Amino acid sequence: MSRKPRPAATKAPLQLGRPVTLPASPEEAKLDRVPNPHAGTDYLVRFAAPEFTSLCPITGQPDFAHLVIDYVPGNWLVESKALKLYLASFRNHGAFHEDCTVAIGQRLVREIKPRWLRIGGYWYPRGGIPIDVFWQSGRLPKNVWVPDQGVPPYRGRG
């Protein structure tokens, strides 16, 4: 009689707690997820990445943003080290601001299936124009408090 392998035995180990190299691209990056210990409770999780970097796909020059990711988890949480490595994998990735912001939100939705997610990408000026990009998935549960993302509009040198 053969036994089915346990799910933990077939899944690759988490990146957490061990040395991991920076992924060469967002496509190669692994986003680990862990079970939500409060899956029956609606609450907000926020990640802020104030030093996000990618490359302009035309000039190859660096682009900088302050990202704020808010989500109401379902059965899964995104593991923070894996998220950090995923976001860092954009450092050598050429894409427009809109593409980076929306792609990050969509990948998170695919991987962790939250009840609700929004991402705000507050991009610093290139060519004299700051670009802010916002994307959302799902409906915010009524009983969840969502504070302002706290990133002021760009005002130049004040």
Question: What is the fold's blueprint, element by element?
Answer:
Blueprint: H1 7-10, E1 33-35, E2 45-55, E3 62-72, E4 76-78, H2 80-88, H3 97-112, E5 116-126, E6 129-138
Antiparallel strand pairs: 1-4, 2-3, 3-5, 5-6
Quick structural gist:
With 158 residues, the protein is of the alpha+beta class.
Would you mind describing this structure in some detail?
This protein is an alpha+beta fold. It has a domain at 30-138: GTP Cyclohydrolase I, domain 2 (2-Layer Sandwich). It has helices spanning 7-10, 80-88, 97-112; strands at residues 33-35, 45-55, 62-72, 76-78, 116-126, 129-138. A hairpin with a 6-residue loop joins strand 2 (45-55) and strand 3. The longest helix has 16 residues, at 97-112. The model is unreliable at 1-10 (pLDDT under 50). One of its GO terms (molecular function) is preQ1 synthase activity. Residues 1-35 are annotated as: Disordered. It comes from Afipia carboxidovorans (strain ATCC 49405 / DSM 1227 / KCTC 32145 / OM5).
Radius of gyration: 17 Å
CATH H-level superfamily of the domain at 30-138:
GTP cyclohydrolase I, C-terminal domain/NADPH-dependent 7-cyano-7-deazaguanine reductase, N-terminal domain
What would you call the structural class? alpha+beta
The strands making up the biggest β-sheet line up spatially as: 2-3-5-6
Beta-strand content estimate? 25-35%
CATH class (first level) name of the domain at 30-138: Alpha Beta
Mean pLDDT: 91
For the secondary structure, the number of strands is: 6
Largest sheet: 4 strands, antiparallel
Gross geometry: globular
**Unreliable stretches:** 1-10
**Second-tier CATH architecture of the domain at 30-138:** 2-Layer Sandwich
Distance between the termini: 73 Å
What percent of the residues sit in helical stretches (DSSP H or I)?
A: 10-25%
